[in-house]
Design brief:
Radius of gyration: 24 Å
Protein name: Xanthine dehydrogenase accessory protein XdhC
Oligomer: single chain
Pfam family, one: XdhC_C
Number of domains: 2
Helix content: 25-40%
CATH topology of the largest domain: Rossmann fold
CATH class of the largest domain: Alpha Beta
InterPro entries: MoCofactor_Util/Proc, XdhC_CoxI, XdhC_Rossmann_dom
Order of helices and strands: HEEEHEEEHEHEEHEHHEH
Number of helices: 8
CATH architecture of the largest domain: 3-Layer(aba) Sandwich
Shape: elongated
Structural class: alpha/beta
Length: 286
C-alpha cells in the first residue's frame, strides 16, 4: 500500500482511541530538500506517530509545530521555511508545509431519558460535532434511537448513578418521564458541582415554570442551596415554538448551540463581517 494511504488508514484508529493528531504535508519544494513533494507525517501529543518528512532537524521542527497546533484552537497552519537559514540544515532549499489538525469533539452531551423529546433531539444533535450519551431504564425506547458511532446508549434502572462518571465539561440534560426521575439526577449533579464547581457548564431539565418551582422546593429540602439550585435551567430551551416534541427539540438544540459558543468561545457573531448580533444587536465589526 502507498505509505500516504497508510497514514489516512491510521487516522480513524487514533481518533477512536481518543488521540488528537496533526497531519503535516510537504506540499512544495524549491531547491534541495531531504524528502519528496507529498511526503507527510502524523503527529500526536507524544510525538511522531507515522511517516517521515525528512528526518533530522526539519522533522523535529515539523513535530514541534504540529504539537503547538494541537495546543491551540486553530485547525490549519501553513509554513514556508528556508532549510539553511531557518532550520539550520546544510540543504539550501525552501519548503512549504501544510498542517491540519484532527480533533475529537470536546463537546459532550448527556441526555437522561429517551422519550419523545429525546427521540426528536438526539438525531438533530448527531448532525453537530458532539459526543452523545443517552440513559434510560427502558430498553424499548433506547432501541428506537439511531445507531451512530458518536452516540452511546445505556440502560440503567438508577440513572443518577452515572452522573459521577460523566466528564467535567459535559452538558447535562434531564428529559425523563417526570420530576420524580429528574430529582435524583439533579441532586447528584448539584452535589458534584458543590465539590467540583466547574463541572456541567450546562444543566437543564425539561418542564414548565410550575415544575421548576416544585424541583426547587424539593432540592432545598434535600439540603441544596438556592445559589446551587439556580444553576439549573428549567424550562430548558429557547422561548420559541410550541409543545410538539420536534419543536421542543429545536428550541433545546438552539439553546445548546448558544451555550456551547459562550463556553468554548466559538461565537461567529464576534467575527468581522457579521455586522450585528440577531439578539443583542451589537455591532461586531471593529
Amino acid at each position: 500500500m502507498d505509505p500516504k494511504l497508510e497514514l489516512y488508514d491510521r487516522l480513524p484508529a487514533l481518533l477512536k482511541s481518543g488521540q488528537d493528531c496533526v497531519m503535516a504535508i510537504l506540499v512544495a519544494i524549491t531547491g534541495s530538500a531531504p524528502q519528496i513533494q507529498g511526503a507527510r507525517v502524523l503527529v500526536n501529543a507524544q510525538g511522531l506517530v507515522q511517516g517521515t518528512i525528512g528526518g533530522g532537524k526539519i522533522e523535529a521542527r515539523v513535530i514541534a509545530e504540529a504539537q503547538d497546533l494541537l495546543k491551540s484552537n486553530d485547525h490549519f497552519r501553513f509554513h514556508e521555511w528556508n532549510l539553511q537559514t531557518e532550520i539550520g540544515m546544510t540543504c539550501g532549499g525552501l519548503v512549504k508545509i501544510y498542517f491540519e489538525a484532527f480533533r475529537i469533539s470536546r463537546w459532550e452531551i448527556a441526555v437522561y431519558g429517551a422519550g419523545h423529546v429525546a427521540q426528536a433531539l438526539i438525531p438533530l444533535l448527531l448532525n453537530l460535532d458532539c459526543q452523545l450519551q443517552c440513559f434510560d431504564p427502558r430498553a424499548e425506547w433506547l432501541e428506537r434511537l439511531p445507531e451512530h458511532p458518536r452516540l452511546k446508549c445505556q440502560q440503567l434502572a438508577n440513572m443518577a448513578e452515572s452522573v459521577a462518571s460523566l466528564a467535567p465539561e459535559t452538558f447535562l440534560l434531564s428529559l425523563t418521564m417526570g420530576h420524580a426521575h429528574d430529582l435524583p439526577i439533579l441532586e447528584t449533579a448539584l452535589k458534584r458541582k458543590h465539590t467540583e464547581p466547574k463541572v456541567f457548564p450546562f444543566l437543564g431539565v425539561i418542564g414548565s415554570p410550575a415544575k421548576a418551582g416544585v424541583l426547587q422546593r424539593e432540592l432545598r429540602q434535600r439540603g441544596l442551596s438556592q445559589a446551587e439550585i439556580e444553576t439549573i435551567r428549567c424550562p430548558i430551551g429557547l422561548a420559541l415554538g410550541n409543545n410538539q416534541p420536534a419543536e421542543i427539540a429545536i428550541s433545546i438544540a438552539a439553546q445548546l448551540l448558544q451555550e456551547r459558543d459562550q463556553y468554548f468561545g466559538k461565537n461567529k457573531w464576534e467575527q468581522p463581517g457579521y455586522r450585528s448580533h440577531p439578539v443583542t444587536g451589537k455591532d461586531s465589526d471593529p
